[in-house]
Structure formats: structure tokens, C-alpha cells
Design a protein that fits this description.
The protein is α/β, with parallel strands linked by helices. It is built from 16 helices and 18 strands. The strands form three sheets. Strands 7, 8, 9, 12, 13, 14, 15, 16, 17 and 18 form a ten-stranded mixed sheet that branches. Bound molecules: 6-O-phosphono-beta-D-glucopyranose.
Length: 519
């Protein structure tokens, strides 16, 4: 391949640090994981750390320190991590990778989160690793713990000196959602994290932003000319964002019952999908530029319908009842282990939102998410208006649903364009057909898991895929009134497992003369 004639003298473009073929490798560091014994760490975080190591993206000096209340030694932690990796990693088990990773693993037992002596031990362990393995003093902290523990943990971490700045070394904190349970508590939580690191060193994890297909929304929108002229109120009829899961809450009642669907996934994943779909083009892919555009959209979101807010008419919540799913009898939410019989927590939420700006005025954005629905699917469907005039007989166009661009987040990752086409034959009969782009068919390599991307980015200090506190705040601004409204109402409406949610969700769109794409 010829060296570009435009390369500055002495610069080989093949060795340019921005060369996409060069792997981005994280600095040597210690990652201290609070909550390592939790479900998220076992299923996602630890396999992701191993996969990064397996792909050669962690420094050989990388160290992992688990902190928890189990009475474990380092060996016990290693065997727990090995098990998590064997059942959850994407890349094959390779003894050499494992041995290098395991050599940098330590466990520190806390009798409780305010056990000051244990934090002193933690500091010693981290300093010892710094000295033995040459981590350069770089430290990352992953807080995958219930928000109730934040005050204690941040206070202790600050007091034991672990986060004190050191010349040439970095300190970063990754915070797992939920980012508070409303606007006020999110601000408190942010202030607590702000006590241990600077705002730019806080990485708020919304794992949807780590998904390839979510990042692809920006690629589709801003690296093509074709869609942009259609992407506004002149041509778009409405937008549907769906995050449907076919599973129940499993063993997560302790977490889920105090949260519910709106706080669990609407406040973060769904509003982020809305923001990426509706935002203006950023001036670059730098964190500040992307976040600024998302913030403007979130700022413009309202629960009103043409200026009038009626939450009874624009929000719906539901709760799965007992029944059958996939040929199996399943329990209702209230019968799940650990759910109190008086619970009013929703397992389904749907909202009708509007985005008050020139591009989107009058275009409804319908969001819905739920557990125990008909199938697992996450997608954003931009549905276009019908043509103002159809020069065909009415009968030949009767079955048309309207053109749509569907960004398929999962499973079956890709994009579909739904367009009208003539059915072969002697009549002019029109029907909807799909043009599909499927990741699996176009690319040979598997997509990395969201957590691989996010852990790597945080260790590299790359912030674009992490929401800023202002986005968190603006998202709560949208949801707080909804949650307050629901709290004052009775129990959520029951729905059948394996269905597409409560009747109210169908009515939400029917009131506007529309229907969900899958219902
Ligand atoms: C999490 C929610 O953020 O996302 C869970 O807390 C949900 O309730 C999960 O099941 C779904 O993630 P994914 O990546 O499987 O769509």
C-alpha cells in the first residue's frame, strides 16, 4: 500500500496513533471492584475483564482487587472469577491469559462497608501491587453496589488515601446505575462521588451505550446522506422505542421491587436511545460534543401532548400476572420470591413523549419496556408518514403500514427499511417488504460485549460513551413527575406473560390512531 503523498514528512501514516488497526491498550493499573460478589460482576464484569485480557487490550501489569463481605482469600476469589469467566466469557479459555490475569488478583474482606481497618488493608494491598507489578500508581474503582452504600464507601475511600492524587498517575471511578432514584438523590450521589474524584474522572455506566448497535445509530444517521433529509417532522409520523424482555425478575426482587421498570431501564437505556435518535449532528465524536447534543434533546423532551400534560393519558404501567410463557407455567410478579404482597412496582412502562424543537414538533415518541413480554427485542423504529397522495386504487394499498427505518439493537442486530413494493402479478397490488442489513451477514467478527467496551474506555479515559451528570439530571426531570403520579395511583394493570403488555399500552397508541409495531 503506497504511503500517502500528503503525509507530513517523517510521519508514516501506518504508524499514526489514530490508525484504527492499532489496538487501544489500557495503561497498567489496579481496578478495585466493589460488589465483585454481585450478580452483575459474575455475569458481565468479570467475563468482560477476561475477554479484554484475552484480546491483549489490558497491560500485562493489570491488577484486579475484589472487595466484598465474603470471608475469602485471594485463591477463593480466583476460583470464583475463573468460574464466572468460564461460564460468561466470549473468548476461549486460554491458560496463559488466565495465569497472567490471576497473578494480579487480590481479595480484601470487609466486615461491613464502614470497616475502616479493612480500607487500610485495601490501601496496603493496592500499594503493594503498585510496587510489585509496576502499575504506575493508576487506579480505577468500579462501584457496583446499592446506592445506599455510596456515602459510606466514598467517605472511607477518601479517608484511607486511596484516591489521593499522585503525579503522573490517574484515578477514575466507574459508577453503575441506578444513578439515584429521582432527581434530588441523583444529585446527592453525584456530590458523593465528587468527593473522591474530579468530575471528568467519573464514568457513569449505561451499558446500552457500550452496545455496537447503539453506537451504530450515530453512524447510520451521520455517515449517510440518505436518511437525514427525511429525519424530521415533515416526513416522520412517529418513533417507537421498544425494549422487551421475555424473562421475569428472576432472583433480583431485592433490587427490582424498590426500582421498577421506569427507573431500571427507561431513565437510562430508553431515554439514551431517544436522545441518539433525535439529536442534532455533533461537531465531532468527542465526549463534550456528543453529550451537548444529547442534553439539548433531553432538555426539549416533554410529557405534554400538544402542550397539555395529562399523565393518565400519556403513561401506562403494568405488572406481569401468573400464566404460561413458552409452554411453561410462570409465576406472577407478586408471587416471585422476595416480592412483598403489597408491592405496587411496575414490570412494564410505556410513555408518550414529545420533543419540542423545530425538527420534532408534533412527532410523538412512544417508549415501552417490560419483563415477561412476548419475545426479547430492543429496537428503535422511525415510522414515516403515508404519502399525501396515492395514485393507486384504494384496495391495492390497503395493507400498507407505512415506511419505516428500524434500528435493531438486539437480538438479530442490524437495520431494516420497510418500504412498499408491488406484488408480482397482473394487478397493481402493493405490500410492505423489508430490506435488511444484518451484522452477522456483513461482518465476520463478533461484536464485543458492551461491558468490554466500557471498561476499556474508562481505563483509557475515553468518555463519549458515558452519560454526563447533566443527562442523568435531565432524564430524571422527565421521569420524576411520572413516578410521582404512579405512586399516587393504585396498583399497576396486570398483563399476561408472553403478551405485549397491558391493554393500556395498546390504548396509548390507539388514542392517536396508531398501533405498536408488534402487538
Ligand atoms: C439492565 C436492567 O440495565 O438491563 C435489567 O437492570 C435488564 O433489568 C438488563 O434485564 C437488560 O440488558 P440487555 O443488555 O440484556 O438488554
Amino acid at each position: 500500500m503506497p504511503i500517502s503523498a500528503t503525509a507530513p514528512q517523517g510521519v508514516n501514516p501506518l504508524l499514526d496513533s489514530r490508525d484504527l488497526r492499532l489496538p487501544r491498550i489500557a495503561d497498567p493499573c489496579v481496578l478495585v471492584m466493589f460488589g465483585i460478589t454481585g450478580d452483575l460482576a459474575r455475569r458481565k464484569l468479570l467475563p468482560a475483564v477476561y475477554d479484554l485480557a484475552g484480546r491483549g487490550l489490558l497491560s500485562p501489569a493489570f491488577c484486579l482487587v475484589g472487595v466484598g463481605r465474603r470471608d475469602w482469600d485471594d485463591e477463593a476469589m480466583r476460583s470464583y472469577v475463573a468460574q464466572a469467566v468460564r461460564s460468561g466469557a466470549r473468548t476461549p479459555w486460554r491458560p496463559a491469559v488466565w495465569e497472567q490475569l490471576a497473578a494480579g488478583m487480590r481479595f480484601v474482606t470487609l466486615s461491613s462497608f464502614d470497616d475502616a481497618a479493612a480500607y487500610a488493608r485495601l490501601t496496603q494491598v493496592v500499594e503493594d501491587l503498585d510496587a510489585r507489578r509496576g502499575t504506575g500508581g493508576n487506579r480505577a474503582f468500579y462501584l457496583s453496589i446499592p446506592p445506599g452504600w455510596f456515602p459510606t464507601v466514598t467517605q472511607q475511600v477518601a479517608a484511607c488515601g486511596l484516591v489521593e492524587e499522585a503525579p503522573g498517575a490517574w484515578r477514575r471511578v466507574m459508577v453503575e446505575k441506578p444513578f439515584g432514584h429521582d432527581r434530588a438523590s441523583a444529585a446527592e450521589l453525584d456530590a458523593l462521588v465528587g468527593r473522591i474524584v474530579r468530575p471528568d474522572d467519573v464514568f457513569r455506566v449505561d451499558h446500552y451505550l457500550g452496545k455496537e448497535t447503539v453506537q451504530n445509530i450515530l453512524a447510520l444517521r451521520f455517515a449517510n446522506t440518505m436518511l437525514e433529509p427525511l429525519w424530521d417532522q415533515r416526513y416522520v409520523d412517529h418513533v417507537q422505542v421498544t425494549m422487551a424482555e421475555d424473562i421475569g425478575i428472576g432472583t433480583r426482587a431485592g433490587y427490582y421491587d424498590s426500582i421498577g421498570t421506569a427507573r431500571d431501564v427507561v431513565q437510562n437505556h430508553l431515554l439514551q436511545l431517544l436522545a441518539l435518535t433525535a439529536m442534532e449532528e455533533p461537531t465531532s465524536m468527542e465526549a463534550g460534543a456528543v453529550r451537548a447534543e444529547k442534553e439539548k434533546v433531553l432538555q426539549a423532551v416533554s410529557l405534554g401532548r400538544g402542550g397539555v400534560t395529562d399523565l393518565e393519558a400519556t403513561t401506562v404501567r403494568g405488572r406481569y400476572a401468573a400464566g404460561f410463557q413458552g409452554g411453561e407455567r410462570v409465576r406472577g410478579y407478586l408471587e416471585e420470591d422476595g416480592v412483598p404482597p403489597t408491592s405496587r412496582t411496575e414490570t412494564f412502562a410505556a410513555l408518550r413523549l414529545e420533543v419540542g424543537n423545530r425538527r420534532w414538533a408534533g412527532v410523538p415518541f412512544y417508549l415501552r419496556a417490560g419483563k415477561r413480554l412476548a419475545r426479547r427485542v430492543t429496537e428503535v423504529a422511525v415510522v414515516f408518514k403515508k404519502p399525501p397522495f396515492l395514485p393507486f386504487e384504494a384496495a391495492s394499498t390497503a395493507s400498507l403500514g407505512g415506511g419505516a427505518v428500524v434500528m435493531r439493537i438486539q437480538p438479530d442486530e442490524g437495520m431494516t427499511m420497510r418500504i412498499a413494493s408491488k406484488v408480482p402479478g397482473t394487478h397493481m397490488e402493493l405490500r410492505d417488504v423489508s430490506m435488511d442489513f444484518a451484522y452477522g451477514a456483513s461482518f465476520n467478527n463478533d461484536s464485543p460485549e458492551a461491558y468490554e467496551r466500557l471498561i476499556l474506555d474508562a481505563l483509557l479515559g475515553d468518555a463519549p460513551l458515558f452519560p454526563h451528570q447533566r443527562e442523568v439530571d435531565l432524564s430524571w426531570r422527565i421521569l420524576d413527575p411520572v413516578i410521582e403520579h404512579w405512586a399516587a395511583a393504585g396498583a399497576p394493570e396486570d398483563y399476561r406473560p408472553g403478551s405485549w403488555g397491558p391493554e393500556g399500552a395498546t390504548e396509548l397508541l390507539a388514542r392517536d390512531g396508531r398501533a405498536w409495531r408488534r402487538s
